[in-house]
Request: fold
Amino acid sequence: MLRRQVLQVLAASPLVLAGLRPAHAGGEPRAFVEDLSQEVIVTLKSDPSVAGRAAKLADVLRRGLDIDGMARFALGRHAQTLSPDQVKAFDVAFERNVVETYSDLLARQTVTEVKVGPAEKKGERDYVVESTVGKSGGQTSVYGWRVRDTDGGMKIVDVVVGGVSMLVTKRQEFASVIQREGIDGLIRRLQQQTG
Reply:
């Protein structure tokens, strides 16, 4: 239930698509988020069909999220116990699950504006950038974007909504599934959740 609520809230935000610009290596995190916000709005308006928008957004997600880092964090201590075949199967299933879930949900949104706040340094390479997202009908939502300055440029590594971290939620969910069904059970579940 919590997972569904987090997904629905995240879907209302264009910044889940943090990879619209592959550059920004060593750049300023606030500018990165501002640029992405504008590109996401353009992408959402670029195609009249949900399927068309979802396809474009999927490409953006693959470029903009630190999917490998997110996958390792979500697995937690279990990441050290996987065989090479399990690592490969998990990586493919995790990426597909994240990309398909968020691109489809985001493609259904109507975002009118994004107001980006200052970046707050968190650790050696991380920043949190808060944004307020306006949607049609006057609704707004506040998101905290954890942005990491990676060797490949700025990447989104987590989203916090209402004090709830998407990545911590996934980690807890995955640990529960692994405890009951093992890593192969988690991989199967991820594969079943996508087309």
Q: What stands out?
A: Confidence is low (pLDDT under 50) at residues 1-12, 14-26. The chain has one domain: 2-192. Helices lie at 2-11, 29-45, 50-64, 67-75, 84-107, 166-192. Strands lie at 111-122, 126-135, 140-150, 153-161, 164-165.
